[in-house]
Design a protein that fits this description.
Radius of gyration: 30 Å
Distance between the termini: 29 Å
Strand order of the largest sheet: 7-6-8-15-16-23
Largest sheet: 6 strands, mixed
Strand content: 15-25%
Number of helices: 24
Number of strands: 23
Length: 606
């Protein structure tokens, strides 16, 4: 069974009126009105169209972020008027209608993805097909975040960071009221100031599949480590801060010691597989490096006693784990022929290393002298490690971070969502689970999502052309324009039915209907605009972006100079996902494209 939602596409004249809605507070959509689409779909959708055209009843007040929740066939929408949000919740109503009486229903992530895609189409007056079924009692939320945080931590060493600047400007321009933060600690501190339930927050930062490029604790390293997010106490957090850097310090000293060891202890080194050029076993290599790291922290000149006392327990944790891994390593027992097996048919194994050999290796680190370089600058990462460990220790020592984290966890539940806008982080499911662990608990935790492509914020250009038959015919001669019409007309103007071989008249109809045509202009996105119609086309373009501000009046206010076209070059900031980093011709998707939601990987709430 499928549910069809259809609303007649408004004419360009009526479109402005439809998108112009109230921008006051305490906006409520009566549940009984929207629930009409369950029993009387035609009447219900007519009422939805009336609401979208006229806005909601309002009262005076400030502009809170818009949000909605649909549950048990009823919708409540509050905040700034948004046709997109209205459409989103209508999809959820249809999903719950489909789910009535069904044993098998879709996951919350799948339901939200469908509403994210179809909601804007409903807001534009398009016919859509709702296919996912939802349990009636599952609360499904709209897309506006309660809180938006943009990172102050950039990757550019000298001068302002373009990504950080553009991300901040985007969220400021489109009404998200972003809060600038430099650390996860700062986010926890801000969220701990309130006690109302959180439906959705957004964190915008440089990122990669390795993690968020911001500080965990204020003043620490510019990368939030997975182990820091999952740490249960200060010792675990400091140990996580030490792990990625400290065991790789002073490689030249380690190589020198290994050569001396191979020369003077040839029999032991042969049994352990230690050679001049390296160590055969990954487990033994890790054990060897942590032994040297402990010796380094104990003996290095220039490190203070408090710093030594801070680092040594963390190093001992890692050394203990490496020692256990080396002792537990098993290898098959050589038999000289036939299958290696016990009487029970299982392959026979033995420890890879004798415990006495490992003990002897460890004792040698206390006997053989090392020539450690003094702590100078950041030549071997020890300075970075100390900075991160000190910051983490400070955050935990006063219990402020733990206390704030506990308060924050009480504000999230299984239906809450944490959105991350940062490159490629969605490729790392374990890291998303670590974020979930920090903001939630093992019993109750929010869903987390992040893109698996590169995230961009930036501007589009435009080409304003004469609205004449000759100029449109000339434009049609360009293959990139023909390709653009085929791609974008089903998304922006589904009422235009393209034949197998469209011609210039279809381009003319598309542009005259009030839609801008995005096209590839030497590797970057630009819009075809018609003189005399360009301002309406720009408003139409921005109304489709699934931004918080998507009404005509709201969009016009974002271009205060009076001429939207003249301000378009500097003020046309939008977001997109891009498959390849820095490649202008790389495949892109925008928020209004059907493929957008598919590039946000999510783990469900607990």
């Amino acid at each position: 069974m499928r549910t069809w939602i259809h609303k007649r596409s408004p004419s360009p004249k009526n479109r402005s009126r439809r998108l112009t809605g109230s921008t006051q507070t305490n906006l409520n959509s009566p549940p009984e009105t929207l629930s009409l689409i369950h029993q009387q779909p035609s009447k219900g959708m007519a009422e939805v169209q009336r609401i979208i055209q006229s806005g909601y009843p309002t009262s005076e007040g400030s502009l809170p972020p818009a949000h909605g929740v649909t549950q048990n066939g009823q919708t409540n929408i509050k905040g700034a008027f948004s046709p997109t949000l209205m459409g989103h919740e209508i999809v959820h109503l249809a999903q719950q209608r489909l789910g009535k009486g069904r044993e098998s229903t879709a996951s919350r992530t799948t339901l939200e993805a469908e509403a994210h895609t179809l909601g804007p189409q409903i807001a534009r007056g398009e016919r859509v097909r709702v296919q996912q079924a939802a349990p009636a009692n599952m609360p499904l939320h709209g897309v506006d975040p309660d809180k938006t945080y943009t990172s102050t931590q950039g990757l550019v060493q000298n001068g302002p960071d373009p990504y950080v600047q553009d991300a901040l400007e985007y969220h400021q321009k489109w009404g998200y009221n972003p809060i600038q933060v430099g650390s996860i600690e700062a986010i926890a501190k801000d969220l701990a100031q309130g006690d109302t339930p959180l439906k959705r927050i957004r964190i915008v930062s440089h990122a990669s599949a390795s993690g968020l490029f911001m500080e965990f604790a204020q003043g620490g390293g510019n990368l939030v480590l997975e182990g820091e997010l999952t740490a249960l106490d200060e010792d675990e957090a400091v140990a996580a801060a030490v792990e990625p850097h400290l065991q790789y310090v002073n490689a030249n000293a380690l190589a020198g010691f290994r050569k001396v060891f191979v020369r003077d202890r040839s029999e032991l080194s042969a049994r352990l597989g230690i050679k001049n050029e390296g160590i055969d076993s990954a487990e033994l290599k890790s054990f060897f490096k942590w032994l040297a790291t402990r010796k380094r922290v104990q003996d290095i000149p220039g490190i203070s006693t408090p710093d030594r006392q801070l680092l040594l327990p963390a190093v001992e944790q890692h050394l203990s784990a490496a020692r256990s891994a080396a002792r537990a390593l098993q290898v098959p027992v050589p038999t000289g022929g036939g299958a290696d097996a016990t009487a029970g048919g299982e392959a026979a194994t033995q420890p890879a290393f004798a415990r006495a050999d490992l003990t002897e290796l460890e004792s040698l680190f206390g006997q053989i002298g090392f020539r450690w370089d003094p702590l100078v600058g950041n030549s071997d990462n020890l300075a970075k490690v100390l900075k991160r460990a000190r910051a983490t220790h400070a955050a935990f020592s006063e219990r402020s971070l733990e206390d704030n984290q506990s308060k924050v966890q009480d504000r999230f539940d299984t239906n809450s969502v944490i959105e991350i806008r940062g490159c490629s982080l969605g490729q790392n499911e374990n890291y998303l689970k670590a974020v979930q662990s920090f903001f939630g608990s093992s019993a109750i935790a929010p869903a987390v999502n992040a893109p698996d492509w590169y995230q961009y914020f930036g501007r589009v250009g435009y080409s304003e052309v004469e609205d004449s038959e000759a100029r449109i015919k000339k434009l049609w001669e360009e293959k990139r324009i023909r390709d653009a019409l085929v791609k974008w007309s089903p998304i922006f103007f589904p009422g235009l039915q393209l034949p197998p071989k469209p011609d210039w008249t279809h381009l003319q109809a598309y542009l005259h209907a009030g839609h801008a045509l995005p096209f590839n202009a030497r590797g970057r996105m630009a819009l075809v605009l018609l003189k005399g119609r360009s301002e309406g086309q720009i408003i139409d373009w921005f109304s489709k972006q699934q931004q918080r501000i998507d009404t005509v009046g709201g969009i016009q206010q974002q271009f205060p100079g009076g001429s939207i076209v003249s301000e378009f070059k500097t003020g046309s900031i939008v977001q997109w996902l891009q498959k390849e980093y820095g490649n202008a011709r790389s495949e892109k998707v925008f928020s209004f494209e059907p493929g957008w939601a598919g590039h946000f990987k999510s783990i469900p709430g607990i």
